[in-house]
Structures are given as structure tokens and as C-alpha cells.
Amino acid sequence: MNILIVSATPFEITPLLKEINADMEGKIISSYNYNQHEITILITGVGIARTSFYLGKYLSDKYDIAINAGICGSFNYTLSIGEVVRIDEDCFADLGAEDDEQFLSIEELKLLGTYHIKNTVIFDHTYLHGLKNVKGATVNTTHGNINSIEKFISHTKADVESMEGAAFLFACNQAQIKCLQIRAISNYVEKRDRNKWNIPLAIERLNTFLIGFIKVF
To answer: Which domains does the chain have, with CATH numbers?
Structure first.
């Protein structure tokens, strides 16, 4: 298979890079042979703009599947720190307008644009069936204030937040490339306290899943 793995940073997929002997230093995109697959790694950088640009430049129908892999914060306390989740529904959470205390999405404003995004080119495999499928929200500013968190949850109903997911799903839908967004939870979204985060565990679990997934093809 020809697999595209998209990550905002090499840090989040370092164990995978070591497993496939990938050297991404100074590179945006590079391809490697592993387990009878051609695996292309695309490091976009953080955020919607960079993810959109580099997917627009490099995403093509030569890929059998595109995988967006990273860590995320969770609003949902029934999800465990380190848990790997699948996100097939996302949104561009701050694309809209404030109307006093109310948020109006770009769709509610009836402007040309996309707010909600669902994966319409889903890749299915039995290895994925144990993952919880949760609702994502893609933001430009991650949350760390109790008041803004409560307002945000009330209008998005999101389980997790990232800074790239909706852009990835939108690009794959437009290109009709089968795709998978998977993330491991590094922290709960609350008043910012990095001492409560467990990024190493999230990265370990994410990459254990990724490597196992690639090996079962």
C-alpha cells in the first residue's frame, strides 16, 4: 500500500520514524519502504493554514490511505490520558462571528464556507474497531480558561480539540482519498497546568497503535 502519514510535528511520531528508519530533519515530505508499503511522511507544522497548504500541495490519488496522527486535549473526562481515539467528525470551531454572548458559525451566517466536517471517505479495518470514535474541534487557540471552555463545549459538543484535524478531513474529502484521523489524549482541557499532562504516554500509545496498524496490512 501507498500510505501518507500527516503530522504537525516530527516529535509526535518520533517512535514511528525510528521504526521505519526515517530521517525527517530539515524535510517537509519524504518516502520510505517498510513492511512492503511505501510510507510517505508529511510534516506540516502546527495549525490550519500550514496543514491546508501542504496537503493542497502534496495530497494526491496515488495514496491508498492518508492518516493524520497526533496528540490532543480532551474535554471528555470519560476518555483516559494516553487513550487513542478516532475522529471522523470535526469542525472549524472558531470560524464564525460573535453575536453578543452567542457564537454564530460560518454556516449559520449563511456564508460560503465550511464549519462542520464529516469524513466521507472512511477507511475501515478490524484493527480500528476497538477505538472510540469521538467528535473533534479544530482551533487556532487551544483552551485554558474555565469560562471560555464552558462556552466552547456548549456550542461545539466536542470531545477533543486539535489544531489541524478539520483541515485534514476537509482536504481528504475534497480529494476523495480514504483517510483516518487518530489522536492520543495528552491532557484534559482545563485551566492550563502542564504538570497534569502526560505527553510521553500519549506519544507512546499513539505510535504503538500506528506501528501495529501498519504491520497488519
So the answer is: 2-216 (3.40.50.1580)
